[in-house]
Design brief:
Length: 770
């Protein structure tokens, strides 16, 4: 695709941005569109014949629908129909058709597929109406009757039903062990043996999940969807309903946050498509905030960690086992315990991971899936070991520092974690920290300092990118990438502008359309290293083509020049040794008599080289808390997060990613508590009034440090790694460790609420080894 899609109105940098270099603090080029309301989201596209779908949610956790009475609903003026499993359009029945690109093993959930109920809140009907108001009122009048079966939603009471996942999600690496962790632990002179628990968390992005399906007269469906991949949603719709890819276009030019909740198509998408197919008209379905609590969530997890050490702090044994929830439908898995085999030098490591099937919707990846829980447990255990040794927690980590991943027995492609420790500790003032708990009182509060290490994968995937130089001097770069608020528009434009030597205002990066060149799902902190490298590669090919054209010009000032002899800058190509010998790029195209020049690039990881290395991003998090022990209230007064994530392309958006992740880490640690009524098998506090998240008053000083690092193994073209996930990893552990330093009370479950601080952690069941 060579021209801008008019409907997307892809943003460009404002005039005056000028020439850019990697690391510059460039403001978001889509910022103006967002704050002025020019940016359109999935529920804001209109069609003249638009109908509105409202979802009716089920009220039981397990069973079957015996009858649905829609008589009263159909009598409401403006109601067109009530769709159920009995009268829906045809959909494919086999599992493979409904597997999206991130689906775990098993049978994906299909809304309105049958009378079977798998979880509380499951969609059981869709009211279609001429207005949203009529649809919403009618939905309250639909009467659903059930034959109810016994259900189980309590992980801690069903740990004895744990099993090793039967089939693995693509890309999942089962944990392995080295040495003899059990024997080494039993022989260790200093030991820690503790259990940890992490409760359910919900994504809750600002934009509600919505799909607007606009049906053309020829039957073509243009879907505006809240998703982290337009091509994933297109795949899901076309395969699930037996449509060709040419009959469906999915667009997501703006996404109001997702955090992983948009990795899989949520059920409003197939419901909106069903409505459009049944009515043969355009349909919009928007989920309520309560319904957004009914799909996907960060799964609750139980851990047991045993660490053994010599009196000098040398780790002799690491033993980490975890049990996590999944659904009855799919074996959802996360990398939870593997991190404990990468963080510290140790020759005897035992790792175990199992899942328990409960009657809930399949869990869903949430920012730093697996690591946010697994590293939390490990880093709190390390703090416990430090106190058993009467050793500074940072000194213990430095004592066991390694440049090699122990389990994999591979060197890290780059690892500036030691420098993260040094710079973070210096900025925080860690050297002034007394070891003993309760040693830093300040008025009515106890002050505590804690720290933790963070780690996340440095991922690279496959992508295709197109770069087009137009005769007017404008560069348009395209890929079906997604910007969920992370700064994709800005970073990709920066990469292209720097590569071509153009001012930002002459560069447009086009994303968010399934017809654009293939891009991976926006997740795992991989967009910069993958799509960004593709952008760089496409621009390098384009420069070669332009130079060839410039050399063919009559009396070319670049005669006989090669790529190594020239530089691109200020809209021209010129000799490095004599910048006065130059040709304007617009002149090159005009002389050739063409309106545009296009090059395409297929980005693939350098896998043979990467196999020799462990690849990760690292961090060191330092945290200060102030605790009012009488009230059980904890304030996080300051955080220093030092990050080693390769070359930072956009300093401003990268720092925003880290500070936002730290905010969520604080929220995870202290605020976000899900209450389940196990009698009914449902989440009870499914609203912002009762599901608490961190607000402005909860957040104080956050200091982000980017340690210098350049990784050409992960990213040959850019030297970059991802920053989206790493910012949250270790934050909750640092807060937990700081609370212990302040009070002497060790909290091993999240969230760490006032009740737990006043009365202690909930009692966890002791389990045999996994």
């Amino acid at each position: 695709m060579t021209d801008l899609i008019p409907e997307l109105r892809a943003p460009s940098a404002p005039a005056g941005t000028g020439r850019v270099k990697s690391g510059m603090p460039v403001s978001r080029i889509d910022g103006r569109a967002k704050v002025t309301g020019e940016a359109q989201y999935a529920a804001e596209y209109f069609a003249p014949d638009l109908a509105y779908g409202v979802v009716v949610s089920g009220t039981v956790a397990k069973g079957r629908i015996t009858s649905i009475d829609a008589t009263e609903a159909l009598a409401v003026p403006g109601v067109i129909s009530v769709m159920t499993h009995e009268n829906r359009p045809k959909m494919r029945s086999f599992d493979l058709a409904w597997k999206d690109m991130t689906a775990p093993a098993g049978s994906p959930f299909r809304p309105l597929f049958s009378d079977e109920i798998f979880y509380s809140g499951q969609p059981v009907a869709l009211v279609l109406a001429e207005t949203f108001e009529a649809g919403r009122y009618a939905a309250s009048l639909v009467r659903v009757h059930y034959d109810v079966d016994a259900h189980e939603t309590n992980l801690l009471k069903s740990l004895d039903q744990a099993y090793e996942p039967r089939k693995m999600k693509a890309g999942f690496v089962p944990p392995s062990s080295i040495g003899d962790g059990e024997k080494a632990f039993d022989a260790a002179e200093v030991r820690v043996d503790s259990q940890y628990y992490n409760g359910v968390e919900h994504h809750n992005p600002m934009e509600m999940f919505a799909s607007t399906v606009i049906r053309a007269e020829n039957g073509h469906l243009t879907v505006y969807d809240k998703t982290q991949s337009s091509q994933n949603s297109r795949w899901y719709v076309s395969h699930g309903f037996g449509l060709s890819s040419d009959e469906v276009t999915v667009r997501n030019p703006y996404v109001g946050g997702a955090f992983g909740s948009g990795l899989r198509p949520q059920y409003q998408l197939p419901l909106a498509v069903m409505g459009a197919l049944q009515l043969e008209r355009s349909v919009r379905v928007v989920l309520t905030r309560q319904q957004m609590f009914s799909f996907g969530h960060r799964p609750e997890t139980w851990h047991r960690i045993r660490l053994g050490a010599a009196p000098d702090g040398t780790l002799k044994a690491i033993w980490h086992e975890a049990i996590q929830e999944t659904s009855r439908l799919e074996d959802y898995v996360e990398v939870i315990v593997n991190w404990s085999g990468q963080l510290y030098a140790c020759t005897d490591i035992k790792l175990g991971y199992q899942v328990v099937a409960n009657d809930r919707f399949t869990p869903l990846d949430m920012r730093a899936p697996g690591a946010a829980h697994g590293v939390h447990a490990m880093e709190v255990a390390m703090d416990e070991l430090a106190y058993e040794l009467k050793m500074d927690p940072l000194a213990l980590r430095l004592k066991n520092y390694t440049d090699t991943s122990p389990i994999e027995d591979k060197p890290f492609s780059s690892k500036e974690l030691r420098e993260c420790y040094r710079q973070g500790a210096e900025r925080f003032g860690w050297e002034k920290r007394p070891l003993e708990p309760r040693s830093m009182p300040d008025g009515d509060e106890l002050v505590g300092w804690g720290m933790a290490t963070g780690i996340w994968d440095a991922m690279v995937m496959v992508a295709r990118v197109s770069a087009v130089m137009h005769r007017n001097g404008r560069l348009v770069v395209s890929s079906a990438a997604t910007d969920i608020g992370t700064g994709t528009y800005t970073v990709m434009s920066m990469i292209a502008a720097e590569a071509m030597g153009l001012p930002m205002e002459l560069v447009t990066f086009q994303l968010g359309d399934s017809t654009l060149p293939m891009a991976p799902i926006e997740g795992g902190s991989s967009h910069v290293t993958t799509v960004g490298s593709g952008v760089h590669g496409a621009c390098e090919k384009l420069k070669k083509s332009l130079l060839k054209m410039a050399l063919k010009m009559d009396n070319s000032p670049l005669a006989k020049a090669r790529m190594r002899d020239v530089e691109f800058g200020d809209g021209a190509v010129f000799l490095k040794t004599d910048p006065s010998r130059r040709v304007e790029l617009t002149q090159v195209l005009a002389n050739a008599g063409v309106d545009q020049v296009e090059e395409k690039y297929f980005m693939t990881p350098q896998m043979l080289k990467q196999r020799k290395y462990a690849r990760a991003v690292h961090s060191a998090v330092f945290c200060e808390v102030r605790v009012n022990e009488k009230l059980g209230m904890v304030r996080v007064s300051r955080v220093v997060s030092a990050i080693a994530a390769g070359r930072i392309i956009s300093a401003k958006t990268a720092a925003s990613q880290i500070s936002g992740a730290v905010v969520w880490g604080i929220s995870q640690a202290l605020h976000e508590e899900t209450h389940t009524d196990h009698k009914y098998g449902r989440f009870m506090n499914h609203n912002f009034a009762e599901y608490h998240v961190a607000v402005n008053a909860d957040i104080h000083d956050i200091d982000v440090i980017f340690v210098e690092e350049d990784d050409r193994i992960v990213s040959k073209q850019l030297g970059a790694k991802g920053v989206g996930e790493i910012g949250i990893v270790g934050v909750a552990a640092a807060i937990s460790n700081a609370i212990f330093h302040a009070t002497g009370t060790r909290l091993r479950t999240t969230p760490m609420t006032p009740a737990k601080l006043l009365m202690g952690d909930e009692e966890l069941p002791v389990q045999p080894p996994v």
